[in-house]
């Protein structure tokens, strides 16, 4: 790439090139001024300045017309090309074509969203955007703002965000939970009664050193307690534990509806009212009007707008 002498160009009024091109087109100072929507004296001043800068008359009056000199004719082509390129750059805008785009989108997802969004979004991209790939790196809520600001993440989807974030947040759905258990190992009425739920052994999600993990705060708020015998950071591990052991796995309702039947698990409403933060989409303010981010956010909205029962149908159809 050729080096541009920015300092030298800074001292040159690039508007003079526009005036020169208008004079080449019109061959008349008055008509050139009208084209640029300026007064004739201003156009005459532009011509005088151009003559000084290029050390050439550039345009010579012949009757009512201004005829370009040899130097002007030589300058005309390069100046027109430069103006065409500038016009194309200014009018191109932010163009994003998913069918031809070749890039990686980095979306931070909570463990539940990984199981819900990644399969469907990948399947959709294979159809409409084959050059786009997805990376779902782990992240900590405390660093989310910095990761989005730095472009390490394009966006995040899940419950690990701060409502006070300086970024843009859109709630996608309320987080509800359900019970999953293996009816061959655990004989329970369905729906599971409160007493049976409280007396059962449990497997839950935990991303910390707390055995009750993600349920701890919700259980305390509800004034309930559970005998948690297994905890893991991944929902599929918890569901597989319920498949292999006589325990109840309390998991997000959307996870239960999508995966429980595949694992031979029964589902039941949780007999305790548990409150959780809603699942939201978070993206940086600098990407609010970015066409790629707008498109990706639309895909994610569409996927989560589908009824949960639709997911089961899609999985069965793909099997």
Protein model, in words:
With 319 residues, this protein is of the alpha/beta class. 45% of the residues lie in helices and 18% in strands. The chain has 13 helices and twelve strands. The strands form three sheets. It has a five-stranded mixed beta sheet with strand order 4-3-5-12-6, covered by helices on one side. A hairpin with a 2-residue loop joins strand 1 and strand 2. The longest helix is centred in the first third of the chain and has 23 residues, at 70-92. It starts with 5 loop residues before the first helix and ends with a helix. Residues 309-319 have low confidence and may be disordered.
> Which structural category do the helix and sheet elements fall into?
alpha/beta
Strand content: 15-25%
Number of helices: 13
Gyration radius (Cα, Å) is 32 Å
What is the H/E order?
HHHHEEHEHEHEEEHEHEHEHEEHH
Oligomer: single chain
Strand order within the widest beta sheet: 4-3-5-12-6
What is the number of beta strands?
Answer: 12
- Report the principal-axis shape: rod-shaped
How far do the termini sit from each other?
52 Å
Report the average pLDDT across residues. 86
Low-confidence stretches: 309-319
């Amino acid at each position: 790439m050729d080096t541009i002498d920015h300092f030298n160009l800074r001292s040159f009024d690039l508007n003079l090139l526009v005036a020169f091109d208008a004079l080449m087109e019109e061959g008349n100072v008055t008509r050139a001024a009208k084209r640029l929507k300026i007064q004739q004296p201003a156009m005459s001043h532009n011509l005088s300045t151009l003559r000084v800068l290029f050390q050439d008359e550039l345009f010579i009056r012949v009757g009512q017309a201004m005829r370009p000199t040899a130097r002007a004719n030589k300058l005309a082509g390069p100046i027109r090309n430069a103006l065409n390129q500038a016009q194309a750059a200014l009018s191109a805008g932010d163009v994003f074509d998913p069918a031809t785009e070749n890039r990686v989108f980095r979306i931070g997802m909570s463990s539940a969203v990984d199981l819900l969004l990644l399969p469907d979004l990948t399947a959709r991209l294979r159809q409409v955007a084959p050059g786009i790939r997805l990376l779902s790196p782990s992240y900590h809520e405390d660093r989310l703002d910095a990761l989005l600001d730095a472009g390490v993440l394009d966006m995040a989807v899940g419950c690990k965000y701060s409502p006070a974030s300086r970024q843009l947040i859109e709630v996608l759905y309320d987080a509800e939970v359900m019970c999953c258990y293996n009816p061959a190992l655990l004989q329970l009425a369905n729906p599971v009664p409160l007493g049976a739920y409280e007396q059962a052994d449990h497997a839950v999600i935990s991303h910390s050193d707390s055995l009750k993990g993600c349920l701890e705060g919700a259980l305390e708020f509800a004034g309930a307690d559970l005998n948690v015998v297994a905890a893991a950071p991944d929902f599929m591990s918890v569901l597989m534990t319920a498949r292999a052991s006589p325990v109840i796995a309390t998991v997000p309702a959307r996870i239960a509806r999508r995966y429980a039947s595949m694992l031979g698990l029964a589902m039941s409403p949780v007999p305790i009212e548990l409150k959780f933060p809603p699942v939201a989409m978070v993206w940086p303010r600098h990407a609010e009007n970015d066409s790629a981010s707008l498109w990706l956010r639309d895909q994610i909205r569409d996927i989560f707008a589908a009824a949960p029962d639709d997911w089961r149908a899609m999985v069965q159809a793909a099997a």
